[in-house]
Amino acid sequence: MPIDVEARACARVLWDFHAEPMTGPGDGPADLILGLGSHDLRVAHHAALLWADRTAPLLMFTGDRGRRTNGGGGHARWERPEADVFAAAAREVAAIPDSALLLERGATNTSENFARGRDLAAAAGLDVRRAVVTAKPYMGRRALAAAAVHWPGVQWTFRAFPGGFDGYPDERYSERELVHFVVGDLQRLDRYAERGWSAPVAVPEEVRAAQRRLIALGYTEHLVPD
Known about the structure:
Number of domains: 1
Radius of gyration: 17 Å
Structural class: alpha/beta
Strand order of the largest sheet: 3-2-1-4-5
CATH superfamily: HUPs
Largest sheet: 5 strands, parallel
Distance between the termini: 29 Å
Helix content: 40-55%
Number of strands: 5
CATH topology: Rossmann fold
């Protein structure tokens, strides 16, 4: 069932705020592309394109199984860690050799994506000073906020697959589900900063007002308990 006009307008406000980091200028060649594991294989495909475009010589995928890929919400449990599934999906797009690919298979959340990714890079002897992180488009601010705490000392840039709010929904991901996600990710910016899991992010009142309205309309499925 399609969402109504008011909900769509409010969701666009949240989407634009979340995705704004990927509209900034690039910073030249990076040392590493970090692909955050999730249920959305478009992230893996975009990471492969970034690598093929020589954004960085190395590509790392990080992720075991998250809530959805572990069978939450009635979804099928992935048989392999997200990192392995993403690597296979990326190689459908580009011929990435083993020498250019690192897989971190233990992370189950965004904080661990960066913390475990940092440890893997260190174990491999990498000196990462400039890196690109790619994830679902609405995770831009949350990814950079987590990176600031769990992998500091790196100049991070966020990039995600194109399409915008209108292009994200498809036969697998409904527009309604997307609205639940953008509401929940805004809440996570606050909650995770309070718990020391990510850096604080300033949220404009216009964005908070849109979130409050969406919560009042029932878009609460992706919220975390207080």
